[in-house]
Specification:
Chain B: It comes from Enhydra lutris kenyoni (northern sea otter). The complex is a heterodimer. In chain A, about 0% of the residues lie in helices and about 40% in strands. Chain A is an all-beta fold. Chain A has a single domain (about 20-450), classed as Methylamine Dehydrogenase, Chain H, CATH 2.130.10. Chain B has helices spanning about 20-30, 35-45, 45-70, 75-85, 100-110, 115-130, 135-150, 155-160, 165, 170-185, 190-205, 210-225, 230-245, 250-265, 270-275, 280-305, 310-315, 320-325, 330-345, 350-360, 365-385, 390-400, 400-405, 410-425, 430-460, 470-485, 485-500, 505-525, 525-540, 545-560, 565-580, 585-595. Chain B is built from 32 helices and no strands. Chain B is flat and about 90 Å long. Chain B has a domain at about 485-600: Leucine-rich Repeat Variant. The model of chain B is unreliable at about 1-20 (pLDDT under 50). Helices cover about 75% and strands about 0% of the residues of chain B. The chains are: A mainly beta, B mainly alpha.
Chain lengths: ~450, ~600
């Protein structure tokens, strides 16, 4: 493990110094659509990091063991396995193309030497096994080592194959395919703490699956109105509580979050808790509803809090208080005056995700211009950092960035008008125990670490 | 390596050159690694042949080490391997060498696929019986301990299933260790392992000394029954059944009942569902006294649970519960404590609950007797026969035989008929199919007269249903009716109507005539077949639709054996020969097939 030690996360007061570690992906300005990263996820130990892309591929990086000769290179992540998880399909009954884009990846808790993950596109969830093989059987009866067939009549003794060591081979094999349960696009999958079930959510429904059963799932939430013209909100994200197997939450396009208890009934149409912040009537505008739509919801590791991301802010809720969030952090408040143009170029519908640090003391979420934001919950300090190749010398510290909102631009500041809205950071992940983060910037994956003193 | 077949390698390991008996074995061994899963599977399934040819020593020293490391394969291959190894003791040299089979099974017991793991555990259990007591402690118990303290929870879950087989044969010191290992698995960090432990708790309790059951199993049971994970708590309910059987009434009351009461009122509906689902087993395990004091009130609560799944599961158990009550005082208990709740369920808001009740409610009539049935149950049957949900009505109709024995079906016929007619015309073809399947039963109970009057027309209408499955079922229904009512009835009521359809403008209906004839000819016998059916079939050989013509050929092949030789030679043969020259390929094919089957060439 790295020098920081388990659980070493932004300590109060001591501001964390992030430095560059690695960048993955092509340098080319010309980005192929299929190479755009669409999800990033660490496994439970943090030793593996998975990304999915719009081309339906999953790439898994493995952390190298500590290298004694280079004490300062703390375990880098290198490609461990790459496989095609989903292929483009065509639904002939509905005349719809089904993209291969990986919407979400979720790791399963490790159960044996192999690793398992769930990956999903809009319609189909797959369970993948990633396993290693380092032995190969040798010796046939009917042919020689070089493959020449032997004369069957000259076989005088039986040979049992023997196993010889070989170069390590990593195999990814599809173990289960969970299909045909979603009419709308799947936006979330989440594994239950009972390790045997998981949920999948689309725009209007949430289904509960058993990891070993592919031919049936149970519908636990259905908000589809009888008449689709009465549709006023959709499900935008859903997640299981990390410790309580019976609790899950789902967020809606109206900015609210519902918490359901699966103990009370089989169908969870009635929520147990309803989290909503009263709207400030003075700031109401045409965009209010659009920007209040929640794009991601994540429980803290402790299970006490949850975090929601909407277009301009990220909020932390205490599960015991439904009336308002305990923290609200502005991600890019300077965009409030730009909503018109962001609406015109569709950016206002971007779905930013958010994540917790391993100790829940800090949170991270993305913005535009390859900027991403970190908020320390103890010190209440926040910082804007940039994922860029310009500063990608090994162990170079990341300089905080500033966006100027007023008329006069200071040195080192960047004006709102010169932000590049095509460079957006939607997906980020934080190592579960250490200060290592993975930030997906279009087709590049940046890995940053805290600076070891 | 290849030349290693030394002396003493067993009868199959032939020496000398050019022994072709080795060839098939050589193929089998090579195909253990074929790219085609099916071939690998075949080889694994013939593993005993391979082992026999290699002899016991090479099986132990070469084949088993190879198999131990083949856990990369497809699940179905691994499953077959795990199964084979359970019967391999003889092939490795008998009980003295049974422990050689442990390594491959141990690695199979850690794979992620539950079916494979379970099969490996099953084989290990089988093999444990073949170990001598000494070998058991020297080889098997260490294996169990290794699995129980393994890093991965797949191995720990597998261990849970092995304690009960080695415990009874172990020495006291080892027994204490085994109990200790089981205890720690019951409080494992991962819910997977706790579930495995909970599901084996009952089985383990059965092999333990009574004192240990009380001092060790009961606390484990109590803990698991209050686990934070619903999925663990619900398994404790199952364990309750086994543990209850081992304890005296007093111990039961003091040690187990508090937990069971708690489970019946658990916050999670899945746990309450489990109590409802296991109700009969629980009832038997705790005995009549506790049943009356505790279980009946609990059951009443389950019948009016707020979750429909729980009510449905409880409703399913109504009949069994009543049956298992002690005969003395049974009627009073049912009438006063159960029936009022059942009455509520008849008008439940959830159709699954009503349908679950409908599938068992008729069974109460035999328990309650004629008078109570007429007075109390009949109104409920009638209400359910009029239920808006077809499944409820169907479940009542499909259990009519229970009532028939007690009060006779006539009591019901007034309400029965509209219900049947409505189901017969239901928009869902599966509902129609289900009611068709009950027709022979209904016909038998209602008698010919009633049938002719009310139901015959329905049966004929199904023959022209627009769904093929219904027409097909209607055809075989006719055959069963003929078997019930006899050939004379067939000749008068069925056959004429079937034959009329031969002139229908719709070719699908004309084909139905042929299908009916196929089904009916045997039941009707030679005379009716020759005189009434054959002419129609022969006439249809000139149909303009090829599908009809080749079905004529098929029908002739079917009814041929019933006809006498004259009819065959003089009537059937020329027609088949003509069809054999048909311009349509299929017609030709089936005509020629009929000719050869009937030996008319």
């Amino acid at each position: 493990m790295a020098g920081a030690g388990g659980g070493g996360c932004p300590a109060g007061g001591n501001d964390l110094q992030w430095c560059f570690s690695q960048v993955k992906g092509a340098v080319d300005e010309d980005v192929a659509e299929a190479d755009i990263i669409s999800t990033v996820e660490f496994n439970y130990s943090g030793d593996l990091l998975a990304t999915g892309d719009k081309g339906g591929r999953v790439v898994i990086f493995q952390r190298e063991q500590e290298n004694k000769s280079r004490p300062h290179s703390r375990g880098e992540y290198n490609v461990y396995s790459t496989f095609q998880s989903h292929e483009p399909e065509f639904d002939y009954l509905k005349s719809l193309e089904i993209e291969e884009k990986i919407n979400k990846i979720r790791w399963l808790p490790q159960q044996n030497a192999a690793h398992f993950l769930l990956s999903t596109n809009d319609k189909t969830i797959k369970l993948w096994k990633i396993s290693e093989r380092d032995k190969r059987a040798e010796g046939y009866n009917l042919k020689d080592e070089d493959g020449r067939l032997r004369d069957p009549f000259r076989i005088t003794a039986l040979r049992v194959p023997i196993l010889k060591p070989m170069d390590l081979m990593v195999e990814a094999s599809p173990r289960r395919i969970f299909a045909n349960a979603h009419t709308y696009h799947i936006n979330s999958i989440s594994v239950n703490s009972d390790h045997e079930t998981y949920l999948s959510a689309d725009d209007l429904r949430i289904n509960l699956w058993h990891l070993e059963v592919t031919d049936r799932s149970f519908n636990i939430v259905d908000i589809k109105p009888v008449n689709m013209e009465e549709l006023t909100e959709v499900i935008t994200a859903a997640e299981f509580h990390p410790l309580q197997c019976n609790v899950f939450v789902y967020s809606s396009s109206k900015g609210t979050i519902r918490l359901c208890d699966m103990r009370s009934s089989a169908l969870c149409d009635r929520h147990s808790k309803f989290f909503e912040e009263p709207e400030d009537p003075s700031s109401r505008s045409f965009f209010s509803e659009i920007i209040s739509s929640i794009s991601d919801v994540k429980f803290s590791h402790s299970g006490r809090y949850m975090m929601t991301r909407d277009y301009l802010s990220v909020k932390v809720w205490d599960l015991n208080m439904e009336s308002r969030p305990v923290e609200t952090h502005q991600v890019h408040e300077y965009l409030r005056s730009k909503l018109c143009s962001l609406y015109e170029n569709d950016c206002v519908f971007d779905k930013f995700e958010c994540c917790w640090s391993g100790s829940d003391s800090a949170i991270m979420t993305g913005s535009y211009n390859n900027f991403f934001r970190m908020f320390d919950r103890n010190t209440r300090r926040d910082v804007t950092l940039e994922a860029s190749r310009e500063n990608s010398k090994p162990r170079a510290s990341l300089k905080p960035r500033k966006v100027c909102t007023g008329g006069k631009r200071k040195k080192d500041e960047i004006s709102v008008d010169s932000l590049d809205f095509n460079k957006k950071i939607l997906h980020t992940a934080w190592h579960p125990a250490e200060n290592v983060i993975a930030v997906a910037a279009t087709n590049n994956l940046y890995i940053f670490q805290d600076k070891v003193n | 390596m290849a030349g290693a077949a030394g002396p003493g390698t067993g009868p199959g390991a032939a020496r000398g050159d050019g022994d072709d008996s080795l060839y098939p074995i050589a193929v089998l061994i090579d195909e253990l690694r074929n790219e085609d899963v099916q071939l690998r599977l075949n080889s694994i399934k013939k593993l005993s042949t391979i082992a026999l040819a290699l002899g016991v020593e090479r099986t132990r020293t070469e084949l088993l080490p190879f198999l131990t490391d083949t856990i990369y394969d497809e699940d179905e291959v691994l499953l077959a391997l795990a199964e084979q190894l359970g019967n391999f003791t003889g092939l490795v040299g008998g009980p003295d060498f049974a422990h050689c089979l442990l390594p491959p099974l141990e690695s199979l017991a850690t794979v992620e696929e539950t079916v494979v793991r379970d099969k490996a555990v099953e084989s290990l259990r089988q093999i444990s019986q073949e170990h001598t007591p000494v070998a058991l402690e020297a080889h098997f118990v260490p294996l169990v301990k290794r699995l129980a303290s393994g890093d991965w929870f797949t191995s720990r879950t597998s261990a849970c299933g092995l304690f009960s087989v080695c415990y009874p044969r172990a020495s006291n010191a080892v027994k204490a260790e085994i109990r200790q290992h089981f205890r720690s698995l019951c409080s494992d960090d991962t819910p997977m392992v706790r579930r495995a432990a909970a599901s084996k708790l009952g089985e383990f309790a059965k092999v333990l000394e009574l004192d240990s059951v009380k001092s060790e199993i009961v606390p484990l049971f109590t803990n698991l029954a209050s686990d934070e994970q619903d999925s663990v708590r619900l398994l404790a309910v199952e364990a309750c059944v086994s543990i209850a059987q081992l304890l005296s009434q007093d111990d039961l009351e003091a040690l187990v009942m508090p937990t069971l009461r708690q489970a019946a009122e658990d916050k999670s509906w899945r746990v309450r569902y489990m109590v409802a689902d296991k109700f009969s087993e629980l009832q038997k395990a705790v005995g009549p006294k506790i049943t009356l004091n505790d279980l009946i009130p609990a059951f009443q609560n389950l019948l009016k649970d707020c979750e429909a799944e729980v009510r449905a599961a409880a409703a399913h158990k109504v009949k069994e519960l009543c049956e298992n009550l002690p005969t003395e005082g049974r009627e009073t208990i049912i009438m006063n404590q159960i029936l009022p709740f059942i009455k509520e369920l008849v008008s439940d808001t959830n159709q699954h609950v009503k349908s679950a009740l409908a599938s068992v409610i008729m069974g109460l009539s035999t328990i309650l007797g004629k008078e109570n049935t007429i007075e109390h149950l009949l109104p409920l049957f009638l209400a359910q026969l009029k239920d808006e949900c077809p499944e409820v009505r169907l479940n009542i109709i499909s259990n009519l035989d229970c009532v028939n024995e007690v009060i006779g079906i006539r009591q019901l016929s007034q309400s029965l008929l509209p219900a049947i007619v409505e189901l017969a015309e239901d928009a869902k073809w599966r509902v129609r199919l289900a009611i068709i399947e009950y027709m022979p039963l209904l016909a038998g109970q209602l008698g010919v007269e009633f049938f002719d009057e009310k139901l015959n027309s329905l049966c004929m209408a199904w023959l022209v249903d627009h769904v093929y499955a219904i027409r097909e079922a209607a055809t075989s229904n006719l055959m069963k009716l003929v078997q019930k009512f006899g050939t004379e009835w067939a000749q008068n009521t069925i056959v004429p109507k079937v034959l009329v359809m031969a002139n229908d403008p719709n070719y699908l209906h004309r084909m139905t005539t042929l299908f009916c004839i196929n089904a009916l000819s045997e039941a009707c016998g030679q005379e009716i077949t020759t005189k009434q059916m054959l002419p129609i079939v022969l006439k249809m050989a000139g149909d303009q639709v090829a599908n009809v013509r080749f079905n004529v050929a098929k029908s002739l092949q079917k009814i041929g054996p019933i006809l006498d030789t004259d009819a065959l030679q003089e009537e059937v043969k020329p027609v088949l020969q003509k069809l054999g020259q048909d311009e349509d390929m299929d017609v030709k094919y089936f005509a020629q097939e009929a000719i050869s089957v009937l030996a008319l060439a």
